[in-house]
């Protein structure tokens, strides 16, 4: 992703997290909240890995690991009756 796109996505997810934090008690919004938290944390960690991990194979392995962790958080936050 381009740097400006990542920067905008980080800002949009921050705004969404601030808005959703007021409605944290509604079950469906909790799932959306954790999905946005996962996206926001993935984008931030991805940028750190791109900047500071110089070995390409290690960087790609770390990125795949972070993607799997974020997906697991999203799936675990979904209500069971959503499927």
What is the fold's blueprint, element by element?
Blueprint: H1 3-20, H2 27-52, H3 56-77
Helix pairs in contact: 1-2, 2-3
General description of the model:
With 83 residues, this protein is an all-alpha fold. The chain has one domain. It is built from 3 helices and no strands. It has helices spanning 3-20, 27-52, 56-77. Helix 1 (3-20) runs antiparallel to helix 2 and helix 2 (27-52) packs antiparallel against helix 3. The protein is flat, with a radius of gyration of 14 Å. The termini are far apart. The model has no long low-confidence stretch (mean pLDDT 83). The chain crosses the membrane at residues 9-26. InterPro entries: SQR/QFR_C/D. Keywords: Membrane, Mitochondrion, Transmembrane, Transmembrane helix. This is Succinate:cytochrome c oxidoreductase subunit 4.
């Amino acid at each position: 992703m381009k740097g400006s796109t990542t920067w905008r996505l980080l800002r949009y997810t921050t705004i969404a997290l601030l808005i959703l934090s007021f409605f944290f008690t509604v079950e469906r919004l909790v799932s959306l909240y954790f999905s946005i938290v996962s996206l926001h944390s993935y984008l931030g960690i991805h940028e750190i890995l791109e900047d500071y991990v110089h070995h390409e194979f290690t960087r790609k392995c770390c990125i795949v690991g972070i993607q799997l962790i974020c997906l697991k958080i999203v799936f675990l936050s979904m209500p069971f009756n959503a499927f």
